[in-house]
């Protein structure tokens, strides 16, 4: 235990020395900065890094959380996402969500990182991209320049791809498309050394079921059976996240300041252009709810990167959001933007479980720990993920019926008082989902197998939620209502994705692993449509892919930011984080968020 800790003390010591340069205390703040970035998370650290490349401009990043202390659950794949550790730690906001009527009153709290690096510090390491269709649909939602072709250079820019050595690549058939990858970017993409014969057994199951194998899911063909790499450093096998990738390397810059453990409570605005348009000209900060507020001026721009849960809250607290919400709290309306906090989307998962004999190659923790510290190999070092990203027609034998019902569905599942622009935006999204979900280049559900569990995740949910403030206190919780399954058609996809997960478990390849007993989830005999729906209600969980709450879309579709990520109606203010994603892509989100932030940095530098 002590030996393990000491590995990280060295890192910490290095950091403290670095820290004297860029991490400042409140008393060291300048009175103004050219750019102020709110949130030192995944996107915010990219933007602060890129903007400060120009020594003539000053950049401040304000982060609510602290530096992580190099805990095992941050760095070691074995401990990533372990309950009672990473996911409930001081580095998680622990936002409370509303009980969900369709989930038997269960609340699903969205995890979100609260430290330097944000959610990239606590996520599950999978490093992937969506399909061509996913990004092209953003462009078709009225955002020229945000399709697959425009984003690919940024996916390449963020990445240093490390293909596994022959001893792993060959037996596990890990192939890749060299043209899809970057080889000198800040984020390390690699495979651990903890592969066992069961790591890719789901590929055998897919073969049994006739699911084709892709060369490389990052080249835009994010469908069928494919390998997923990790955001993992290829030699020390510790997490590669925004802190080592984008923060530590630039702390020495004299024009870069970072203020930590400080919350931005409000964006300050002034009226300009004869009072017709507001301009963001600074921020208000506080250490705690009772401490004095302090303001800092922004000479050029404020960039909001607090993540998809917190960014809409900060806008609303600043008078930018749905007029009804602001007026109910007596917040002066700076800009009436009905989309702020709406169009909330997430990926949610269902498991199917049958116990199997233990993987004979699995190694116990004593050996795992030894191998990791001795050699950075073994199960603690992680592996890669054998994934299925399956089109709707693969997982469901009623896919055209589902889409037809979706196409002709009334709006009765939506809140009656939904703003007409949001309705128009949801309608446009519907048209795009109906266009793309029948194709073989759009995945409807993701499948992962491990230890007797097939976990299936819905990638293009039809339900939309919201998050709004109910208090003017920035330290009070906001209302988070994901409205999971509020669109009844999501049930059909979820029930069919459970059925397909069962088909995976039932394949000869999986059954050859030696079942120790019958299926335990949903459980033998749970067969009918209604029984499976009840199972879904009791088990659905989040994949932590919150997006959409400050969507990049035309204003008349309920958008909050334009294609240059500028907030409508407010000069000098942009949003850059997962909240601008207008339609959640069929992928885990981190690489997409990094790419958005790189592209945004170029846009800001150009002054577009
Ligand atoms: C538990 C978990 C597992 C995940 N697993 C994966 C995965 O395996 N693969 C993958 O690709 N994606 C995964 N994701 C998703 C991905 O990590 C996120 O979508 C992405 O990191 C979000 O980046 P962001 O910049 O939008 O927000 P964040 O990275 O969350 O950054 C927001 C930052 O703003 C700060 N902040 C918030 N409010 C304030 C305030 N008022 N003042 C100052 N600072 C503030 C926060 O503390 C935080 O540091 C996971 C996410 C989570 C939470
Ligand atoms: C596991 O894979 C290795 C290498 O391909 C092979 O030699 C071995 O027989 C396999 N073991 C089992 C139990 O299948
Ligand atoms: C290996 O992967 C390729 C895709 O890159 C696929 O075409 C091929 O069938 C796979 N081989 C085996 C033995 O599964
Ligand atoms: C792993 O190595 C990278 C690159 O040298 C470094 O940035 C990171 O801090 C290291 N991680 C740990 C936990 O030592
Ligand atoms: C794990 O391996 C160690 C070393 O071989 C052994 O002493 C220990 O009993 C094993 N533990 C379990 C739970 O199997
Ligand atoms: C240590 O790592 C090397 C290179 O990956 C590998 O060949 C070797 O088998 C490992 N040693 C142990 C004890 O696992
Ligand atoms: C579709 O699949 C379900 C469940 O697997 C089955 O009961 C049903 O008969 C199938 N329907 C068609 C039209 O094939
Ligand atoms: C606002 O909503 C949050 C989250 O549901 C709740 O915890 C809080 O009590 C509510 N506050 C008020 C003033 O109603």
TrEMBL record:
What PANTHER family does this protein map onto?
A: DEHYDROGENASE XPTC-RELATED, GLUCOSE-METHANOL-CHOLINE GMC OXIDOREDUCTASE
Active site, UniProt feature: 545, 588
- Known cofactor(s): FAD
* GO BP term, pick one: secondary metabolite biosynthetic process
Top-level taxon: Eukaryota
The molecular function terms in GO held by this entry are:
flavin adenine dinucleotide binding; oxidoreductase activity, acting on CH-OH group of donors
What is the name of this protein? GMC oxidoreductase
């Amino acid at each position: 235990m002590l030996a393990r800790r000491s590995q990280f003390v060295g890192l910490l010591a290095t950091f403290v020395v670095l820290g004297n340069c860029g991490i400042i205390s409140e008393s060291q703040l300048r009175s103004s900065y050219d750019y102020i970035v709110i949130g030192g998370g995944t996107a915010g650290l990219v933007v602060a890094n890129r903007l400060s490349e120009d020594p003539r401009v000053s950049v401040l990043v304000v982060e609510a959380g602290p530096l992580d202390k190099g805990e095992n659950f941050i760095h070691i794949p074995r401990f990533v996402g372990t309950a009672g550790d990473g996911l409930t730690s001081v580095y998680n906001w622990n936002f409370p969500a509303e009980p969900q009527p369709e989930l038997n009153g269960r609340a699903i709290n969205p995890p979100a990182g609260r430290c330097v690096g944000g959610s990239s510090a606590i996520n599950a390491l999978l490093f992937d991209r969506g399909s061509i269709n996913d990004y092209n649909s953003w462009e078709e939602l009225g955002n020229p320049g945000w399709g697959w072709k425009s984003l690919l250079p940024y996916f390449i820019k963020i990445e240093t791809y490390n293909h596994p050595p022959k001893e792993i690549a060959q037996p596990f058939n890990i192939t890749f498309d060299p043209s899809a990858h970057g080889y000198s970017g800040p984020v390390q993409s690699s495979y651990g050394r903890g592969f066992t014969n069961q790591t890719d057994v789901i590929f055998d199951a897919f073969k049994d079921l006739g699911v084709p194998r892709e060369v490389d899911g990052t080249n835009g063909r994010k469908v069928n059976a494919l390998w997923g790499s990790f955001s993992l450093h290829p030699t020390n096998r510790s997490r590669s996240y925004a802190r080592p990738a984008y923060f530590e390397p630039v702390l020495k810059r004299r024009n870069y300041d970072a203020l930590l453990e400080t919350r931005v409570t409000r964006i300050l605005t002034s009226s300009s252009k004869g009072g017709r348009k507001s301009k963001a000209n600074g921020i208000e900060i506080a250490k705690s709810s009772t401490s004095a507020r302090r303001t800092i001026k922004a000479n050029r721009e404020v960039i909001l990167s607090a993540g998809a849960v917190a960014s809409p809250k900060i806008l609303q607290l600043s008078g930018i959001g749905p007029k009804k919400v602001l007026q109910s709290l007596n917040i002066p309306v700076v800009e009436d933007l009905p989309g702020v906090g709406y169009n909330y989307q997430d990926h949610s998962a269902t498991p199917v479980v049958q116990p199997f004999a233990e993987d004979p190659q699995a190694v116990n923790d004593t050996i795992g720990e030894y191998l990791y510290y001795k050699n950075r190999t073994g199960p603690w070092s992680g592996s890669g993920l054998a994934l299925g990203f399956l089109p709707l027609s693969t997982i469901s034998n009623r896919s055209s019926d589902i889409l037809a019902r979706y196409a002709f569905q009334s709006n009765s599942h939506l809140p009656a008082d939904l703003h007409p622009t949001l309705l128009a935006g949801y309608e446009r999204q519907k048209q795009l989902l109906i266009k793309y979900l029948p194709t073989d280049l759009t995945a409807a559900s993701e499948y992962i197998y491990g230890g007797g569990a097939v976990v299936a995740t819905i990638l293009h949910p039809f339900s939309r939620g919201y998050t709004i403030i109910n208090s003017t206190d920035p330290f009070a919780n906001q209302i988070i209502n994901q409205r999971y399954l509020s669109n009844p058609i999501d049930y059909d996809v979820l029930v069919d994705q459970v059925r397909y997960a069962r088909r995976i478990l039932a394949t000869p390849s999986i059954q050859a692993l030696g079942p120790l007993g019958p299926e335990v989830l949903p459980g033998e005999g749970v067969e009918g449509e209604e029984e499976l729906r009840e199972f879904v209600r009791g088990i659905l969980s989040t994949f932590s892919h919150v997006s959409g709450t400050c969507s990049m879309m035309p204003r008349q579709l309920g958008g909050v930011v334009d294609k240059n990520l500028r907030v409508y109606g407010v000069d000098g203010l942009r949003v850059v984080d997962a909240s601008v994603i207008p339609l959640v892509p069929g992928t885990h989100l981190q690489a997409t968020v990094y790419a958005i932030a790189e592209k945004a940095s170029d846009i800001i530098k150009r002054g577009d």
